[in-house]
Amino acid sequence: MVDYSKWKDIEVSDDEDDTHPNIDTGSLFRWRHQARVEKMAELEKEKEEVERKKRLLEEEKKRATTKQEGVPTDELEKLKLKEAEVLKTEQELKKKEKLMPWNVDTISKEGFTKTIINKPKPRKDNSHLSEEEKEELYRKFVKENESKIKQYGMLAKWDDCKSFLLEYPDLCCDDSANYLALWCLNLEMEEKTTLMEHVSKQVVSMQYILELAKQLDCDPRSCISAFFTRIQKADKEYMDAFDDELRSFKTRIKERAKAKLEKIMQEIEEEEKQKRLGPGGLDPADVFESLPKEMQDCFESRDIARLQEVIAQLPEEEAREHMKRCVESGLWIPDAKAAGLVPASEEASKEPVYSETV
C-alpha cells in the first residue's frame, strides 16, 4: 500500500505578495497530489508485473531446453508469442514513463528523474523590493506589453496559447496574470460577462504555469511547454480540477465586481450628498423628508402663503425647529434678495430654494 498521508498537509502559498487577490491560490495547483501519486504507483506496479512475466518466461524457456525429448513446435510458438507480447508491453511502459511530465513528485524519485543538460533558470525574486518599486516595475511592464497580454487573453486553442507564449516567453509572469485578472474585473463591471469568462480561462492557465514554476523553483518560462503538454493530455480528474478552479475564479470576479460597483455607487451618492449640503451641513433631501406633510406640499407647490399658514398652526418650538433645519440645509434662504441670491428655479439645483421670508 502507498501511504498518501504525507500529501494531506501540502498547501500552496496564498500570500498576496505572490499572487493577485482575485486568485485563490490556496486551492490553485494542488494538482490532486493523491491522484498523481496513484498514477505513479500504478506505473510502478505495471513495470513490476512486466518483470514478473519476464522471469516466468525465462523459467519456461529453461525448462523447455532441459527436456530430454524435443519440444513441440506449437509450444515453442506460444513461448515466442508470450515473449513478443511481454516485450511490447515493456516498450509501451518505457514510452509512457518517458512522456510523463516532470513535476514536483517525480523529480525526487528514482525512475522518474531525467538528465537535464541546461539547468532551468531560477525564479526571479522581487521580495526585496518595496511596494513602490514593484508598482513601478508593473507599470513599466504593462506599458511595454499591454497589447501582447491582451492578445494572449483573446486566444482560445491550447496550441495557439503555447505557440504565443513560446514566442513571447517574457509574458509568462505574475504581472501578466495580475493584468489579465484586473481586465476580467473591469469587463465584468462593464457587463461584458461573456468576454470576461473567455479571458478568465487564460488567467487560470497562466496561474497554473506560475504555480508549477513555484513548485519546481524555476523560471516560469521553462514551464510553458510542460504545462501545455500536460493540459492537452490531461485525464478527466485533472481537467475537472482545472474547470473547478476556473468556475471558482469567475465566481470571485463576479462577486468582486458587484462589491466594487456598490462601493462606487455609495461613493457617488456620498459625493452628491456633500454637494447638496446646505450652509448648516444638513442634506435638504433628508430635511424635506422629515417635514410634516403639509409643509412638504407647500415647498413642492412653492405656495409661500400656505406655508406661512401651516407654520402658524404648528407649536412655536416645532415651527422654529423645522425652519431652523430648512435654513441649515439650504432648503430655505432667508432674505435671499438682500444677499444677492436668486430662487432655486433659476439655478441647477433640484431642491427648491425660496427668497421670500416667512
Low-confidence stretches: 4-19, 24-29, 107-118, 336-358
Text of the CATH class of the domain at 131-272? Mainly Alpha
Distance between the termini: 94 Å
- CATH level 3 topology of the domain at 131-272: Methane Monooxygenase Hydroxylase, Chain G, domain 1
Question: CATH superfamily assignment of the domain at 131-272?
Answer: Cdc37, Hsp90 binding domain
CATH architecture grouping of the domain at 131-272: Up-down Bundle
What structural keywords apply?
Methane Monooxygenase Hydroxylase, Chain G, domain 1; 12 helices; disordered C terminus; mainly alpha; 0% strand; 358 residues; 63% helix
Structure description:
With 358 residues, the protein is mainly α. Among the domains are: 131-272, Cdc37, Hsp90 binding domain (Methane Monooxygenase Hydroxylase, Chain G, domain 1), CATH 1.20.58.610; 284-346, no CATH class. The protein contains twelve helices and no strands. The model is unreliable at 4-19, 24-29, 107-118 and 336-358 (pLDDT under 50).
